[in-house]
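Design job #97: recover the sequence.
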């Protein structure tokens, strides 16, 4: 039995996504967020960021289309963070392939000598792999296509929105109405970030039966 969006009364989190200028994790040039309250997206935002130094690798530009000129007049991360920090502090946070985005966050905060916020986080990629079996790919693009999610891939705000929708659908399909139950339901260890350190998200050392799955033919995103 599925539960509707209006029944996800405790499913509150912020999905986010970074784009980077080059191979350095601190070279963030765009960030997008999607705020989910009671299982529904209630706010989305994006920021362009001028990295320090403002150096773009051609390979990164080919991926997201952002150039050094595009962000030359944008704020540095430390200025932008004053606006973005309230979305992260004491929040539940989600990213698709969260190991990358959380690494970017840690590196850029450290670059500007900014304190880590206190938060818990989940990886929607890890959740998707346990929520649905038999998919050829669990990337953001293929999942969005499968579930009818409108995606402008590698635009940070659009990626964050898709990440949020994927996690909400996984919770619907597995009758999870509270963010705190994601770990136990899908057999995952929730990640943490806190002043002075972090704990990475990952698999729980438990039996496979702790990762409930449904067939890959399950219905599309509602």
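Job complete. Output follows.
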């Amino acid at each position: 039995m599925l539960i509707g969006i209006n029944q996800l009364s405790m499913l509150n989190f912020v999905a986010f996504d970074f784009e980077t200028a080059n191979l350095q994790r601190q070279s963030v040039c765009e960030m997008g967020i999607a705020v989910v309250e009671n299982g529904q997206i209630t706010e989305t935002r994006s920021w362009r960021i001028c990295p320090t130094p403002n150096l773009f690798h051609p390979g990164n530009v080919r991926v997201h289309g952002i150039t050094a000129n595009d962000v030359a007049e944008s704020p540095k991360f430390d200025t932008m963070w004053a606006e973005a920090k309230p979305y992260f502090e004491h929040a539940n946070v989600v990213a698709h392939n969260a190991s990358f985005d959380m690494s970017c966050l840690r590196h850029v905060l450290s670059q500007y000598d900014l304190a880590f916020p206190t938060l818990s986080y989940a990886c929607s990629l890890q959740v998707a792999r346990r929520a649905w079996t038999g998919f050829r790919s669990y990337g953001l693009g293929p999942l969005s296509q499968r579930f009818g999610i409108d995606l402008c891939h590698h635009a940070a705000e659009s990626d964050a929105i898709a990440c949020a929708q994927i996690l909400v659908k996984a919770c619907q399909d597995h009758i999870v109405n509270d963010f705190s139950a994601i770990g136990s339901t899908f057999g995952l260890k929730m990640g943490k970030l806190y002043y002075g350190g972090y704990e990475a998200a990952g698999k729980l050392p438990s039996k496979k039966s702790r990762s409930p799955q449904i067939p890959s033919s399950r219905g599309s995103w509602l």
